[in-house]
Amino acid sequence: MRIFMWRIFVGHFTLGAFLSKHGLQGIHCSSYAENMRHAFWTCRCIQRCWNTLFLFPIWDRKPTKADCTFLLFDSGHTILDWIRKRCISLLLWNIWMLRNAKAFRNKISVQNFSWKLCTAYLRLDIAVMLSAERNAYASFLDAV
Fold first, then answer.
1. Which pTM does this prediction carry?
2. Which tens digits make up the pLDDT trace of 84-137?
3. Contact indicator for 57, 115 with CB cutoff of 8 Å
4. What percent of the chain has pLDDT over 90?
5. CA-angle at 44, arms to 38 and 45, nearest 5°
6. Shortest CA distance to 5 belongs to which of 113, 128, 62, 90?
7. What is the SS3 string spanning 10-67?
8. pLDDT at residue 125, rounded to an integer
9. Whole-angstrom Cα distance, residue 38 to residue 58?
């Protein structure tokens, strides 16, 4: 997951022109040239995923621009900010997996992104934390 997030931050993905050379284009939208901004934020199909994320009970506001999501981590609450960051990482991973399944006609099944899926992954992450941290994170997640 860390390598995946690093690739998003540095824009290092095989998109657009590279894929069209190999006969793959328009993964989400056939009428739009694929780039990082479109593939992860501005595509209408992807916007539905982001709208689902912002219905989760951990958000009290939405970003003003689609690609300014990472500016929402200023609550001053360490646990809440960790949960928000983890949910966004999981959403971006889900978007990438959906895109790849469609692009390469994979037979893998990609689960729909939901609060239930996110909390399941969060609980797995919490389970491997130190016991002092684990209790605080688990009780906060239970309260949400």
1. 0.74
2. 888 888 988 888 888 777 777 776 777 888 899 999 999 999 999 998 899 999
3. yes
4. 18
5. 95
6. 90
7. HCCCCCCHHHHHCCCCCCCCCCCCCCHHHHHHHCHHHHHHHHHHCCCCCCCCCCCCHH
8. 95
9. 25
